[in-house]
Amino acid sequence: MTAGRTAGFNFLEQPALPAPQVSEADAQRIAATHYGVEGDAVSLGSQQDKNFLVRRGGTAEVVGVLKVANPAFSEVELAAQDAAAKLIADTEPELRIAVPVPNRAGAEVTTVDGLLVRLLRYLPGGTLIDADHLGPAAVAGLGDVAARVSRALTGFDHEGLDRVLQWDPRYGADVVAALVGHVGDPAQRERLQTATDEAWERITRVAGDLPRQAVHLDITDANVVVSPAADGSRRPDGVIDFGDLTNTWAVSELAIAASSVLGHTGTEPVSILPAVRAFHALRPLTAAEVDALWPMVVLRTAVLIVSGAQQAQLDPDNAYVTEQSDGEWRMFEQATSVPVDVMTAVIRADLGLAAPPADVGTTVPMLAAVAPEDVVTLDLSPTSDAYDFAFTPGGWLQSDVEDRLARDAVRDGAAAVVTRFGQPRLGLAPALSQRSAEVVPTGVRLWPAQALTLVAPWDGEVVTGGADTVTVRGDAYEVTLTGVRPVTAAAAVRAGEPLADAAAAQWADVAVRPAGAVVAPPLVRPEVAPGWLGQARDPRPVLGLAPDVAVSPTTDLVARRDRSFAPVQEHYYRRPPQIERGWRHYLMSTAGRCYLDMVNNVTVLGHAHPRIADTASRQLRKLNTNSRFNYAAVVEYSERLAAELPDPLDTVFLVNSGSEASDLAIRLALAATGRRDMVAMREAYHGWTYGTDAVSTSTADNPNALATRPDWVHTVESPNSFRGKYRGPDVGRYAEEAVAQIERLAADGRPPAGFICESVYGNAGGMALPDCYLQQVYAAVRGVGGLAIADEVQVGYGRLGHWFWGFEQQGVVPDIVSVAKSTGNGYPLGAVITSRAVAEAFRSQGYFFSSTGGSPLSCAIGLTVFDVLRDEDLQGNAVRVGGHLKRRLEALGDRHPLIGTVHGIGLYLGVEMVRDRQTLEPATEETAAICERMLDLGVIIQPTGDHSNILKTKPPLCIDIESADFYVDALDRVLSEGW
């Protein structure tokens, strides 16, 4: 996309030239005559060059890209581009580079009818521009590529770099001034010029300190090629189109790469941060480069628009030019949506380069009439205990939560209440929103118990902003009061003079900023809060209060976790939010974002259920010990649990987790039968203990699962009716084969002790087993003297809606049932229920004991879970909401071919993603990207299945219709963004 050269051409002096008039037939002849390639030539989009994809005749093999240069380019420029490409290819082996392919004469440049032609190496994989939305991994990859190119070109020199290009940010202001007249709308012209002037002023402040070198100048989404990575993601690793190579400011490489991100659906200014971090990690940015980066992004977007407007007039038939216009305007809108200084501060903070703010001095405290010790600081953060004890649980959702907390503090003796500066306020967060809310305050709020007068903190100019606003502007800082009654008519005040009256029991806002700083909104979104807070200061010292020590730079919790917590215990998401509060089917982060929880089947009743909390609190004040003592709770809970199961399941063992429960179930089968062999289903997961890991065959959890099974574990085919070897009317053959395998084991002298299976196929995303499957397999295993084990750890307790237990859906009664997760609503409680005969047979192994399994606390919580399930009709809710949710997801599949099917029933669902509904190729990479994008939109969802291509949809059973619709709407949006 080059527009200029040294030899007689300057975009400031004469217009750019249109793309060469070369047809596909012409390109085909050139490829055959000069490169010996007989085949097809397909035109590709370009702004000023003419590009063709060359395929070898009769095959799908792509030989290269035939590039016919714009007449504005000289041969020496092309030589520089080719030399740079070969240098990067040699010094950065991780990158694929579009180096030139010599013609028949061995030359890299061919002259045809006065035009300069090259055949460049074709890089398969597609570019990032093919993706409508760019996730953080792709954006980081773009920054990584830009850094590697910049690193490789450091020190590179060539006479062909001596160029004047409209894409060079050194000339950006001149380009806009020269070409903005081609933009037809006067208002748009004014906006472009204003943004350019502001950006250029910031750049000129540091221009003398910006390093210069050879720069590709077009590392964008259109010129970076991707390859599939080992983790299923598409990693940018290839670079094409060196047409804009020049010598300019080195940071231009990153600025241009970052600007291209803003043209994609769903991105915003902070979306560039992964690219900036990745670039900085390989090629550290100087302080001047950090300050110039965002202004260059703004300038780049303006240049693209005015250049495109000029080129559209010059070459109106060039569809590539006209198609870019909307995307370029989107880039400009995003680049100018945040003030330059604010976004620069965001970048600086994200790189850990932000300097601590200077202290704000004050001559006289504004709260001169109130003793500091009589002022209460109100904690409104997501971690605050105030929400728990002031009123009903979930009170953060109440619109008057802050007023109620302030009144309580005043009732307890406070003379005044103030909020915290820069601390996210949970009460402002909507429960369901696809966009993070403005929850971070750039000032503080003041609630006086009695009316009081606020005085000027320093000598300064008085600026009124209406009937309820007044500002005192000093030499270095200014303070603004809102929600007050100004009491001075003077144009200036001295420190200590009355300034404004604050009414009793009403909020007044106090904001402080350095002189000349951008005026910050009262509340800002967490993503840009570091930038806005850089334009503000904590007002507490101005009020006469000590700075709030609770407000400090956030630490990298993930890094701390990795240092002390074994990393094999993985966490969700690449950059996970810090979750410190939950309520019902919501999870709240410390940044003040509320997420819809669609995966937490552990908390069957919902997070922070008040009856569970009350039960735990009461019991802990009484007793918590082990089950060898005689107390009522263990008896009552065991009776209650056994009563939920059919005969002869009447005897209970209590443990701490699902892994322990299923492990004990296996041991019971081995002891009762005196055998050592077990039969398990493939693609299943049962736990982490030695026994449960042995029968777990999910390659998603353990890639070597099948190859590392001990010899006493025998696996049967997973009865996957969607993508397995038997489908449709043939699904009954799964049971037939399992039966035959069990009988064969017995015939070989190794009859199994038992068969363990999830009642609903959990790892496959809640897929129901084929009808009558368990009836046939249970009969077979019992026929050879073995026992049937139902793993109900995930599905038990009414999640299916129509059945309390998963095995009921199959019309069977197992010999042993293992259950956990739902039993304690997040508290560690698991159980095994079996017959008295099987339980007594376990005495051959000695005695059984679990220190906290069956403790008074565990049992009290277990009993409360049963009560709440009944009282809130959560099993019925699984029928109602689960049915609605599945219908909506299935309807979504009618519009989005990526959805292969929707598994499950009730609130145990799985949305399986495929690239092709005929071949059922798993959409693993897409599913991972969908989950990351859904997090942006306020939904926590994760992949499951051996191909990690199923959205496991197992929310708390209290979820409502509104939230189910929110989930589907968010998924619809993500799928509509293009995959």
Annotation keywords:
41 strands, alpha+beta, 979 residues, flat, disordered N terminus, Aspartate Aminotransferase, domain 2, Glucose Permease (Domain IIA)
Describe this structure in words.
The protein is an alpha+beta fold. Among the domains are: 18-122, 2-Layer Sandwich (Phosphorylase Kinase, domain 1), CATH 3.30.200.20; 372-543, Glucose Permease (Domain IIA); 610-871, 3-Layer(aba) Sandwich (Aspartate Aminotransferase, domain 2), CATH 3.40.640; 874-976, Aspartate Aminotransferase, domain 1 (Alpha-Beta Complex), CATH 3.90.1150. It is built from 26 helices and 41 strands. Strands 12-13-15-23-19-18-17-21 form an 8-stranded mixed β-sheet, covered by helices on one side. It has a 7-stranded mixed β-sheet with strand order 28-36-35-34-31-29-30, with helices on both faces. The chain is flat. The two termini are 27 Å apart. Mean pLDDT is 91; it is low at 1-10.
CATH structural class of the domain at 610-871 = Alpha Beta
Global Rg: 34 Å
Query: Strand sequence of the main sheet, in spatial order?
Result: 12-13-15-23-19-18-17-21
How helical, in percent, are the residues?
25-40%
InterPro entries: Aminoglycoside_PTrfase, Aminotrans_3, Kinase-like_dom_sf, PyrdxlP-dep_Trfase, PyrdxlP-dep_Trfase_major, PyrdxlP-dep_Trfase_small
Keywords: Aminotransferase, Pyridoxal phosphate, Transferase
Protein name: 4-aminobutyrate aminotransferase
Family: Belongs to the class-III pyridoxal-phosphate-dependent aminotransferase family.
